[in-house]
Amino acid sequence: MPDNKYMQTNGCKEAVCIDAGRVYDSCSDKDCLEDLRVYFTERDQMVVDHAVSVRAKKVCVITTFIDVEALPFNRGYYSCDLTFFFEVEVEVYTGRACPPTTVCGVSVFRKRVILFGSEGSVKVFTSEYREDDNDRQKGMTRNLPRCNVQIAEPIILAAKVVEPCDRCTCKCECECGCCCIPECICNQYGGNFCEPDDGKVVYVSIGIFTIVQLIRNVQMLVPVYDFCMPTKDCSCPPTDSPCDLFKKMCFPVDEFFPPQADPNSLGCGCGCDRK
After folding, report:
1. Engineered SS bond to 145: which of 68, 85, 117, 140, CB 3.0-4.6 Å?
2. What are 25-67's pLDDT values in tens digits?
3. Portion of the chain with pLDDT greater than 70, in percent
4. Residues facing 69 on adjacent strands
5. What pLDDT digit, counting tens, does each position of 183-225 carry?
6. What are the phi and psi torsion angles at 138 (to 5°)?
């Protein structure tokens, strides 16, 4: 092993070779998705068709489909096609005296990112066993980098209901139709999503923060100090009663006395700057 003497002088016992994922390229982005259409099942679409107004409640990420392809004229670079599926919950108001009805729909957003992932021309085989395959050891995988997408909890910014005749003025550039919603997501909502020509449409605006990484498994030489032996005991002392455990909990001061605004922060909370 190279430079073992040097490593031992720094507290290292040895140098070992590990196979780990290395991030070759990454990027972060902040997207404001305006006028993103929400698709509903037939049952919920009937409620939307009687809507006078809607109010946005919350939005969350259902899943993200990722497709990585090498760029033909730029070696080492790859296009990462990302398809985000959002669950959107809105309150539908059908009249002044009627209480709102909560419905859930799905919105779709597509995004493409170009990142550097280096090159690899070898064929990759593995002995990893998978129960659903005939013989996983015979399976060959393409030597492409792995794309990893991280997305923070989306922020719902606005929602509106639009008459059929006004759709063209609100059509989002990234709208791709309900046909792109996969069957596995449709099954979660009890049926297929519809796109009626004469029905009302709900559009929402969503803010998302994402980090996209291209990762390759590489062999790296790293120093080893020692094995990671856990020092914490998993079992609780048998003598501890529920009241003893409760006494060890900290008093929730912030629940009774909400913290004030940071005096060093900019602005005074009223839309004006401090003088």
Report:
1. 117
2. 999 999 999 999 999 988 988 989 888 899 989 999 999 999 9
3. 77
4. 79
5. 888 888 887 888 777 889 999 999 999 999 999 988 889 888 8
6. -90, -5
Mean pLDDT within 116-129: 76
Neighbouring-strand partners of residue 194: 40
Residue 81 and residue 64 in contact, taking contact as beta carbons nearer than 8 Å: no
- Tell me, what amino acid is at 171? K
What is the structure's pLDDT at 237?
59
- What 3 state SS string does the chain have? CCCHHHHHHCCCCEEEEEEEEEEEEEEEEEEEEEEEEEEEEHHHHHHHCCCCEEEEEEEEEEEEEEEEEECCCCCCEEEEEEEEEEEEEEEEECCCCCCCEEEEEEEEEEEEEEEECCCCCCCEECCCCCCCCCCHHHCEECCCCEEEEEECCCEEEEEEEECHHHHHHCCCCCCCCHHHCCHHHHHHCCCCEECCCCCCEEEEEEEEEEEEEEEEEEEEEEEECCCCCCCCCCCCCCCCCHHHHHHCCCCCHHHHCCCCCCCCCCCCCCCCCCC
Pick from 47, 33, 36, 157: nearest CA to 91? 47
- Token reading at 88: 């959107």
- Asked whether the beta carbons of 55 and 93 are under 8 A apart, the reply is yes
Query: How high is the pLDDT of residue 116?
Result: 93
| Predicted confidence (pLDDT) per residue in 61-108, tens digit | 999 999 999 998 888 999 999 999 999 999 999 888 788 899 999 999
CA-based end-to-end distance of the chain = 63
Place of tokens 């016992």: 13
